[in-house]
From TrEMBL:
Gene Ontology molecular function: any one: prephenate dehydrogenase (NAD+) activity
Recorded superkingdom: Eukaryota
Gene3D superfamilies (UniProt xref): NAD(P)-binding Rossmann-like Domain
Protein name per its UniProtKB record: Arogenate dehydrogenase 2, chloroplastic
Keywords: Oxidoreductase
Prephenate/arogenate dehydrogenase domain boundaries: 67-346
Organism: Rhodamnia argentea
Length: 367
């Protein structure tokens, strides 16, 4: 039932009638215009295409190169990656043990409390950014049956052989696997990723064009930011990282406990130490512990660091000691002390083995 009568309606719209009539029966052009032949003049070379053609092309291109990426483990590093993924126009979903829904909405990420709901969104890529220690538990809790039959799994763990073996063991055979390690974090990559290394290993990528394409699109995220793309096997990565990563984090943590402070007369060397502390202090203890647990040589490196520290101490105190002894007892005793310091340094250089140790007789017993 209308709230007004038809008479009222015709009264209100009567002033529109001439206008409407002029649209349906356009008045003829004036006669002088009909008589003159106007030459065709091009007024615009770049005339707007129907339906905003360029914008449509741009949006189609974006859609064709954008991925739907589900991040599992939305802590420090997961959020850091999400910011750049979103800025490149990818659709990001996330799930984590803790509730990050408000952080996620600030980052324009859809947060799912339940991994079943997330998997039902059929992401192209599932990215594991969990702590090294919790990765197996998280992986085993994913309802694989709710994902697309072909999904790309990517991990960003700081160790590589462990997730590679785990993913090969746990994932259905039709899923693709890309193991990666962005060699930077929220501190070192806070301003730009340009020039920072991104290590990756295409562990298992199916033969179809779309699967190869999906993997390349994912790698392109890092290439577009200017990362130094380094393809190497997981085993090679772990061999290189074993000697550097754990030592870097350990020294950073020791210096943090030591309590370095900035001063108005910082040298370049001191600035480097302050940077190291800043880069490592934001990382969780879980991350550091994971590096210790999954690095076969971590224990040995810790012992060598300890020996190196003691050797430096010995050298310093030895010098001081010798001067006093020389003054008190003469040259012969001082020379004996010098010999002890040298033997400690040699032990350190030979990786902890006693300087004059005999080689083991049974070759199998050597490690
Ligand atoms: P992290 O402490 O190594 O990992 C934190 C993440 O693990 C959080 O999302 C956390 O979830 C999840 N988590 C921890 N324990 C869990 C459990 N029992 N069950 C389920 N989830 C659990 O810190 P991160 O810096 O964010 O690193 C994430 C991954 O990226 C690690 O594998 C790390 O090696 C790698 N990575 C880090 C950096 C870096 O600079 N930070 C650089 C390269 C690679 P909740 O927050 O929901 O509890």
């Amino acid at each position: 039932m209308l709230p007004f009568s038809s008479a009222q309606l015709s009264q209100t719209t009567s002033h529109l009638t001439p206008l409407l009539r002029s649209f349906s029966h356009p008045s003829p052009p004036p006669p002088n215009l009909l008589r003159r032949k106007l030459p065709l003049r091009v007024r615009s070379l770049d005339a707007a295409q129907p339906y905003d053609y360029e914008a449509q092309l741009r949006s189609n291109f974006r859609k064709s190169s954008s991925l739907k990426i589900a991040i599992l483990g939305f802590g420090n590093f997961g959020q850091f990656l999400a910011k750049t993924f979103v800025s490149q126009g990818h659709t990001i979903l996330a799930h984590s043990r803790s509730d990050y829904s408000s952080v996620a909405s600030e980052l324009r990420v859809d947060f799912y409390d339940d991994p079943h709901d997330l998997c039902e969104q059929h992401p192209d890529v599932v990215l594991l950014s969990t702590s090294i220690l919790s990765t197996e538990r998280v992986l085993r809790s994913i309802p694989f049956q709710r994902l697309k039959r072909s999904t790309l799994f990517v991990d960003v763990l700081s160790v590589k052989e462990f997730p590679r073996d785990l993913l090969l063991k746990c994932l259905p055979p039709e899923f693709d696997i890309l193991c990666t390690h962005p060699m930077f974090g929220p501190e070192s990559g806070k301003h730009s990723w340009a020039g920072l290394s991104f290590v990756y290993d295409r562990v298992r990528i199916g033969g179809g064009e779309s699967r190869v394409d999906r993997c390349e699109k994912f790698l392109d995220i890092f290439a577009r930011e200017g990362c130094r793309m380094v393809e190497m096997s997981c085993a090679e990565h772990d061999r290189y990282a074993a000697g550097s990563q754990f030592v870097t984090h350990t020294v950073g943590r020791v210096l943090e406990k030591f309590g370095l402070e900035s001063s108005p007369i910082n040298t370049k060397g001191y600035e480097t130490l302050l940077d190291l502390v800043e880069n490592t202090s934001g990382d969780s203890f879980d991350l550091y512990y994971g590096l210790f647990l999954y690095n076969d040589s971590a224990m040995e490196q810790l012992k060598r660091l300890d020996m190196a520290f003691k050797s430096i101490q010995n050298e310093l105190f030895g010098h001081l000691h010798r001067i006093y002894r020389k003054q008190l007892l003469g040259d012969a005793e001082g020379a004996r002390d010098l010999g002890t310091t040298r033997s400690v340094v040699q032990k350190l250089l030979s990786n902890g083995a006693p300087p004059n140790a005999e080689p083991p007789s049974d070759p199998d017993s050597a490690t």
